[in-house]
From TrEMBL:
<dbReference type="GO" id="GO:0006493">
    <property type="term" value="P:protein O-linked glycosylation"/>
</dbReference>
<keyword id="KW-0472">Membrane</keyword>
<dbReference type="GO" id="GO:0000139">
    <property type="term" value="C:Golgi membrane"/>
</dbReference>
<protein>
    <recommendedName>
        <fullName>Hexosyltransferase</fullName>
        <ecNumber>2.4.1.-</ecNumber>
    </recommendedName>
</protein>
<keyword id="KW-1133">Transmembrane helix</keyword>
<keyword id="KW-0812">Transmembrane</keyword>
<keyword id="KW-0333">Golgi apparatus</keyword>
<keyword id="KW-0808">Transferase</keyword>
<dbReference type="InterPro" id="IPR002659">
    <property type="entry name" value="Glyco_trans_31"/>
</dbReference>
<keyword id="KW-0328">Glycosyltransferase</keyword>
<keyword id="KW-0735">Signal-anchor</keyword>
<dbReference type="Pfam" id="PF01762">
    <property type="entry name" value="Galactosyl_T"/>
</dbReference>
<comment type="similarity">
    <text>Belongs to the glycosyltransferase 31 family.</text>
</comment>
<dbReference type="GO" id="GO:0016758">
    <property type="term" value="F:hexosyltransferase activity"/>
</dbReference>
Amino acid sequence: MAITSFKHGKNNFYDLEYFPSTIKISRRFRAGPFPLNDSLIDSMVLHVKSVFDRKCHYKTELVVFVISDPKTFELREHIRRIYGKDSQYFSGFTRSKSIKEYCLLFSVGYTSDLKLNQKLDWEAYTKGDVIRVPLIESYHEIAHKIILTLFLLNKINGSFQYILKVDDDAFIKMDKLMPYVRKLTEKQVLVGYRITIVPRVKDPKHRWNVSDLEYSRDVYEP
């Protein structure tokens, strides 16, 4: 039975149409890229802003968003305890006024398993740090979830200046990262490890296979 009685702020927990408990699996759940001009975007922006306002501080300057698989409940809980706001490390780390504050959010899509989706909804409600994006989860199409999450975070006009995308199997040394962020002076900067002259995997049986339709060249451009 769908949970319908819980409240978060002024809205019912399942007010947003793309929660599976009210619509199950429908056309709103997409495989592939999500149209950024879709009629659902405004509701999704409100959802993301609600998550940000609930979990992040008004002085937050760095948002760490973790791309997470729906099934990895334990990994998300470990992250919360290790360098999320549930950890003792976080509370001690942010006492210094000279350190820019950060907040931790998760980006999680949907599966064809309604019970799993409802379990994720419950996690999102109780933890308050999960952004639900209406995309069918697929490792091969994870880039679409990243693009949509970045787009939505940018649309909420939050206080943060920087966004860090990480996977849920990575550990971030915040005591090393934050001093680096404080030194950044560029208004628009993309920071990462640059990989050059990487051949495209063409074997259809390979996990990282990329078809000609997705990318036609033999080597990725830097």
